[in-house]
Structures are given as structure tokens and as C-alpha cells.
Amino acid sequence: MTAALEDELSYLPRPPLPIPASAKPRDAEDLGKSSFSGVHPMSSPSPPSPTAPPSPSLGAGSSPWASPATRPPSVITVRELWVWAGKKAILSDINLDFAEREVTAIIGPSGCGKTTLIRTLNRMTEVSPGLKVRGSIQYKGQDIYGRAVNPVLLRQRVGMVFQRPTVFPLSVFENVAFGLRLNRESRDVVETKVVDSLKRAGLYEELKDNLHRSALTLSGGQQQRLCIARALAVNPRVLLLDEPTSSLDPSATQKVEDLLFELKREYAVIIVTHNMQQAARVADRTAFLYQGKLIEVDETKRLFENPREKLTESYVTGRFG
Amino acid sequence: MEPAPSQGVRPAEGTLKEPAPTPSPSDVSWLHQYWKAVVSSPISLVPLFLLAFVGGVLLWASELHNFGTSFWGTYWNWIPPGPGSSYGIGYFALGSVLTAGLAILLATILSLAMAISIVVYLPPIASRVLTLFTDLLAGIPSVVFGIWGFVILAPYFGRTLEPSLRDALFWIPGFGGPEYAIGGGTGILLAVFVLTIMVIPITTAVMRESLRAVPHSAVEAGLALGATRWEVVRRVRMPMARQGISGALFLGFGRAIGESVAVAMLIGATPQLPPSLYAGGYTIASYILDQQDSAFVYPILLQVLVEFALVLLLITLAVNLVGHWLTRDQRSPGRRGLFS
């Protein structure tokens, strides 16, 4: 796959890094010839089949990230990800695909590493000292921890919204324009993109009368949607949401969830939530994390109604957590 | 036992404590409370001392000689002291504002750079060392700064720095001027230089704390939008710490304008409209220090010094009040309210 220039993360334009062998399904060739041709090779490891030889790097045939090949191409591929805080493993051996135009939910009890996992996806783990990240995470085929990757570009492609609304003490307009100003966009571009992002975040109708009021005067729900608009303004491909509604009331939560349905038409949305109902409502796929390990990932409906793992079942039925 | 009527409420079921007795009106009188506090802690005498100080100053001011409007001018002719002599604070006030203003300008640039390095860029050990270094700087007596400036810096300023500055920057007002103004190196520029070093500890400390008080969530939000560390400093930390940073300027200015010993030793003791920054000047504070001995001989000069002191007192009080008001959030970070 050739990365479009705007997906390029390196400091200087350079050809995309080759996909490491460990991340490539063995029978990629076969897939290419089959009816699945045209599908992104990384996103479609073969469905577990008794005849296919088990790939050592992929583990057992029923690997947790194995997915039907009809899935949309994956935009972020996580392979053998370990995160260490000192000698304690916060995440152990995570393998996950995040697809375009899908909402993926990450659920699990508190302290299971959900937040750490999505923070590795745009290198925000580097902001908190003392975390060691090992393994491979690829954004459209580029190893995001690669030497040539510019974290600044990565974070604009992989936007993030935090648990609590973190608006800057600026006007609504300037909040959304923040990332655009970093890119030194022209005034016209800033103006159109701010309005466009506010529209996408469903805020424009509410705020269009006065975009220059202080963002601090907005309600909590509006502030959170403003944060989403701010992340959208720099034209991301992936949106990471870390429990975006945990500080919001039910009606504001409803609005954010509605927004997710709109957003997934264009973006890959990855949402961390401790609220299983929320995951069930918004997510196409759900990953269940427990004590730093990925227990199960599947279509949301299947994971909630017919989980493969006992642990998942007891969690989603509310027996612990 | 029946509860007393004044207590009114019966303790709730299962409560072991009696409800606190409602205090009688005489108990809550502030005088009574204050007296109890005075008796219980010597620290509470501080307001009393402050009251005595302010009262003393007012009493002092009420007996001041009236020098008329010429006091605010620049005409200075005090020999012979007595009828017909004239005392204008103009050159001294100019010197004070000029030295303190330039010192705070330089200190702002240096302190901001240091505070940003300490908070954002330096590894923890280095930022602790730099913090310790600036804090220790605050404890050096000003007379030590004075003698250091006089013995070490003044010859260098007079022979090397000031002549070359004059050659290079003569086109900037204040940096040209006659050659004789350079003299032995003492003068406004030297005083500004040493004052800068003296105010750096306070401005750095206040700026450091206000940059540090910016919520981590705001910093992360900036980084998550693709800002570099410098862009986060420039567009998130500095705007959010703006108030503390300007507070630091006021506090530093208050410190600089009140400094007497080091300035008196370095500024060249000349009440004049300085032809350049290399020339001698005077400040209100250093003049009071210098002329205290003469004031024993000429009572009218003592009156002048007292009025100078009163002006200085009012300026420093006002400046420090503004500074403290601007940095009030540092004392109660929970009240920032920037993030709901």
C-alpha cells in the first residue's frame, strides 16, 4: 500500500516502511488471489482454518484479532505490544486491528490498561515519563514508533479527546483553530475549517451566533464536543476517545454518542469506556481488556451475547468490574 | 437530661455527641475572638504591629515640611540648607524608575527563559540544581553584590564593556552619549546589571510556579493536537500563566526599586539627567542611604529624606499589592477555574 502524502508521518517525505514479517499473515499471497483481493493485507489475517498452518508469530489459529476478511481495511495495527512501568507490565502482548469507518470500543475494569492502550496509539505515552513501549504499532503501514516518525504529525492524524473536557481559556473559535494555527494555515482556511469542524461536531447550530465567546462559558457537554471539533479541525483519520462521557450528564452523553455515529462515516473511532451499555450502543467491535491482557475482541453483538471467553462473559454480565 | 432551650435540637438517634451549644452574642464579638487569638498566639500580634507602623507613618507624614510643588521637580540646590534651598525628587525618581524598569526588563527575559527550562526542558536533576541556585542567589546580602560589582565589574564595565557598547550601539538612545560619562564604570548600566541579578530569584520563582500551575490536562490537550513542546509553552503554558508572569514583574519591580545598598555603591551618586546609561545617576532609595549622615547635621535634609522615604513606601506598597493580587492564584491553585 502506498501511503498518501497526507498520511505520511516522517519528518521528511519518504517511502513507507516495509511491513515487518511478523505482522504479515503468512498466506497473504493466497488472500491476494482469492476473492478478497483488494482488501488491505494487514487487516485480514486468514480466518482460522484447520488446514492453514498456524503462523508462529500470530499465535494459535484462533488468535483474538482474527477477523472475517470482509472487514474494512485497518488503519491501525497493533502487534505484540507490551507496555512496562518499571518491572510491571501494564499491557502484555496486545494484538489488535482498528478498522476505518468503525467504532471500536475498549472495555474492561478500572486499571486494566484501557487508557494506556489508546495513549500508545498516538504516542501520548511519551508524555508520561517512565513508560516503556515495546512491540509494533502501525498507522497505515508505518511503524509509529519508528525513528523517522514525527510524533507531531502522528498526533494530528490520530486525534485524541480526553476524559474531562480540556478546553483552553480562549474563545470557541480559537479553541477549534488551535491546531490549524500550529500548521500556520491561512486565515480563510482557518475560518472554513473551524466552521466545518463545529458543524461536524454538531455544535455549530448552538454556537453560531457568537463563536467568539469564551469556551469556558459552555456547558460540560458542549465543551466535550468542542474538544472533538478541535481534534477534527486538523483533519485526523483516527479519533481516540478516552471515556469521553464519564464527566457528562445523560443528555450530553446522548449527544456525544449520536455524534460518534456521524463521525464513523469518515473516521476510525476508538473509544475507551467503562460503561458497557455505552459500548453496546455505539461500537461495531468491542475489545475486552483484563489485567493488561486482551481477552477477547469481536463484533460488539457477539461479544456481549455470545462471548468465547468465560472471563468476558462474567464481565459483561456484571459479575465483576 | 432535658436539652437546654437554647440548644433546641435533640441529638439524632444514634448520635453520641451533644449538639454544639449555640454561642451567645457576646461570645462571637470579633473583639473577643481577636483577644482570645492574641492571648493564644504571638503571631496574631502581627496585625497590631502593622497598625502601629501605619499609624507611625501617618503621624510622621503629618509633621512633614511643605516643600511645595518644587518637591516634584528636578531643581536641586540644598547648599546652604535652610531658607531658599530647593529640593526636587525628579532626578531621583527618574533614576529609580529607570534602573528598576531596565532591570526588570532584563530579568524578565532571563527569568522566563530559566523558568521555562526548569519546568519544561531540563531533566529533573538539572532543574533542581538550577532552582537551588536561583534560590540561593536570593539569600546573598546586597552589600556583597555591591562590593562585588564595585571591585570586579566596575573596572570591566569602564574599560571594556561600556566603550565597546558605545561604539557599537551609539545609535540607540542611551547607548551613545559623551565619552566622559563612562568614567570608572560605575553608573546606571552597572546598577541595572547587578539589580537584574538581584531580582532574578524572585521573578524566576514566581514565573516557575505559575508555569508549573498550568494543568497537565491542558498541556496534554495541546500535545494531542500536534503541538511541539515549544508550541505548548508558547500557546498553552504562557497564556495560561500570563497573570502569574505579570505578577512576577510587579514583585520584581518592587524589589528593584526599593534596593538601596548595592545601588548606592554602584550607581555613581550623581543627581542629574543622565546623558547616557553609562553616566552616574541616583535613586530615591540610594540617596536616603547616602545622605543619612548629613541629615544629622541639617535637620531640613532629614525632612527631605523622610519625604523621599514616604514616596518610596507608597510606590513599593502599590507595586507589591498589584503583584500579590496578580499572583493570588498561586496561593490557592484550586480556584483557577480555567477548567471546569
Describe the structure.
The complex is a heterodimer of chains A (321) and B (340). Chain A contains eleven helices and ten strands. Chain A is of the alpha/beta class and 321 residues long. In chain A, 46% of the residues are buried. By secondary structure, chain B is an all-alpha fold. Chain B has one domain (87-331): MetI-like (MetI-like fold, Orthogonal Bundle). Chain B has 14 helices and no strands. Chain B has helices at 25-28, 30-40, 46-62, 90-121, 124-138, 142-169, 188-212, 216-224, 229-240, 242-258, 261-266, 284-297, 299-326, 328-331. Chain B is flat and about 70 Å long. In chain B, 33% of the residues are buried. Mean pLDDT of chain B is 84; it is low at 1-8 and 333-340. Classes of the chains: A alpha/beta (321), B mainly alpha (340).
Quaternary state of the chains: heterodimer
Q: Can you tell me the CATH class of chain B? A: Mainly Alpha
Largest sheet of chain B: none
Number of helices of chain B: 14
Write down the secondary-structure element order of chain A.
HEEEHEEHEHHHHEHEHEEHH
Q: Report the radius of gyration of chain B as a whole number of Å.
A: 27 Å
